Amino acid sequence: CPKRSPATTRGLGGPAVPRAPRCPRPSPASSLPAACSSFVLPSITVVTWNVGTAMPPNDVTSLLHLNTGETNDVDMIAIGLQEVNSKINKRLKDALFTDQWSELFMDVLSPFHFILVSTVRMQGVILLVFAKYYHLPFLQDIQTDCTRTGLGGYWGNKGGVSVRLSIFGHMVCFLNCHLPAHLEKAEQRKEDFATILHMQQFEGPVANGILDHDLVFWFGDLNFRIESLDICFVKYAIDSNVLSQLWEKDQLNIAKSTWPVLRGFQEGPLNFPPTFKFDVGTNKYDSSAKKRKPAWTDRILWKIKPPSKGLGTGGHRPSQGVLSVSQLCYCSHMEYTVSDHKPVAAIFAVQFASKVDKPLVEIYVADEWSRPEQAVVRYKMAVGFHRSSWDWIGLYRVGFRHPKDYVSYVWARSDDGERCLEKQLCVSGLQVMFSEEALPKGNGEYILGYYSNTSSSIAGVTEPFQISLPRSEEGSSSTDSSGSSSEEDDSTLVLLAPKSRSPSPGKMKRHRSRSPSLAKFQGLILRPSSRDRGTSRSPSPQSRCSVPRNIPTIHLPHEELGHHEVKSKELGQAAESPDSSSFYQTVQEQSGLRRVSADGSLSRADPRNLGLLPALRLEMIDQALGRRQESADQGYYPCRRMSTTSTPGCGPSPKEGHSP
């Protein structure tokens, strides 16, 4: 990064410090999105940071270069974190909800139209990959992997996590590593890196190993140190800004020329001070009794796969093999003081010929939806597109955070799509329509995206369009009532299976999920897994608001049902509806108990409910149990409503030995 006039800025959580040199703004490759040019020139930002179990800072805009206009020309951002707090209590919370670091980066990047493409975590090692929304259809074959190397491969405090994907037809892999520490562990670092390269394998016909990809970004807390030189000389070189005298003693620079496993990896010049080790909250190097020697432990490297030996016509290499990488920036950020490491960022300009000029799914929609009957979506699929019956089209608000952060959805039709694929041609006659109740009311900009369950990615998107639907008094009152109940009852907890085949769980409400795998809704409900749901494979989005029908409910005594009268009437109407035959199907008597079983209609609900755990609803019954005990003492067992249409009478208490 070029030097600028000395200036100071107040660090986050520390005193005034010298401002780190800023990276030059990359020149724009094209005024149009990369997908529209014949040669793709995407800019990729890579960030690595050992956060030292610290809480996220309040602001990361300078780290991501969001406050300088540089991100306007950046197409993708890969963020590698190490030593994220992974204690038992934190891991349990992060298993249910998105971790705070991921939430922070999604919150900061979504206003700039960056969408979380993929994420992977191994204890304290996290990798996040973001991209501009209009690039999503050209990011396919997304896979993740992780390798533990701590404690002989049994512990994940050290190791590597990776995200691999196809970018415009070229295979790219991001590898975030945390290697063993200390000066004398150089050989161990070499062995661990070789183990990671050997263990991580991906599915598919091409690029099964990490080094088989066309482009590999390797970054993280690699823990390489400075040999031979004592701490006094190292600090003198830093203070005198003669960092080049330290380069030849850097272990990674030495290893790149001697280790075969590092052959072909490139790195920009280390024109920034060593990023380890600092006193937390300051920009002073380690002043503790250990007085560790400063070192460039946090690094970003890349490797281009050598071109194939085959020649095209005329003795020239095929154009699709063209690939070059230019590093536009490589710098640290001294203003962040929450950890004993400083974060490091690099911006790359990647140039390769485009193999893909059309998305797998093209979506056509009107410029504005001002009436519900205009909510018609037409789409066509490319030849060879591997569709699934679980594919769906999501309606996203502009600024959404991840592919499952939708406002509404509709299942993609399967019958016409299968006929289209059988004939090996693409038709524009496939269409679906959003129901009126599924559409957001009011004015706003939205985007439609076709989510492919096979590739776990968005295969097609539209440009932003306007939705302007009036807010009716009836609709607003019902919406307000549902919203108020949502505010009053915040006892929401939903568990999502690790590998869900569907969108994240949650009811179709106008608020958006803040997590790719979790959304809030009323009731403590653990929903059944897909193999327990029944035979329906195409749930109807319109039934997303229906009452779950196989969830046992604990009812209050008869004398306390007054304030539940409204809810009972609603349930009664549902039971008396044409679908009541499937609502209450069988009533069995077992050990003096009546048990109501429902059909598999739970599957006809929001797709975000698929693949979950068995159902359980907890209700407040402290007072009910107290009064029930008084009735039992008097020899009578309180009434229990088994359905909304029947009211069993009260009877004597059950015999001893029989559970109530």
From TrEMBL:
CDD domains, per database record: INPP5c_INPP5J-like
First-listed, main subcellular location of the protein, grouped into a coarse class: cytoplasm
Keywords: Cytoplasm, Hydrolase, Methylation, Phosphoprotein, Repeat, SH3-binding
SUPFAM superfamilies in the record: DNase I-like
Enzyme class, spelled out: hydrolase
Residue stretches of biased makeup (Polar residues): 536-545, 578-591
The EC number(s) this enzyme carries: 3.1.3.36, 3.1.3.56
One CC-aspect GO term: ruffle
Superkingdom of origin organism: Eukaryota
Positions of region (Disordered): 1-27, 468-550, 569-601, 628-660
Signal peptide bounds: none
UniProt function note: Inositol 5-phosphatase, which converts inositol 1,4,5-trisphosphate to inositol 1,4-bisphosphate. Also converts phosphatidylinositol 4,5-bisphosphate to phosphatidylinositol 4-phosphate and inositol 1,3,4,5-tetrakisphosphate to inositol 1,3,4-trisphosphate in vitro. May be involved in modulation of the function of inositol and phosphatidylinositol polyphosphate-binding proteins that are present at membranes ruffles.
Protein name from the UniProt record: Phosphatidylinositol 4,5-bisphosphate 5-phosphatase A
Organism: Melospiza melodia
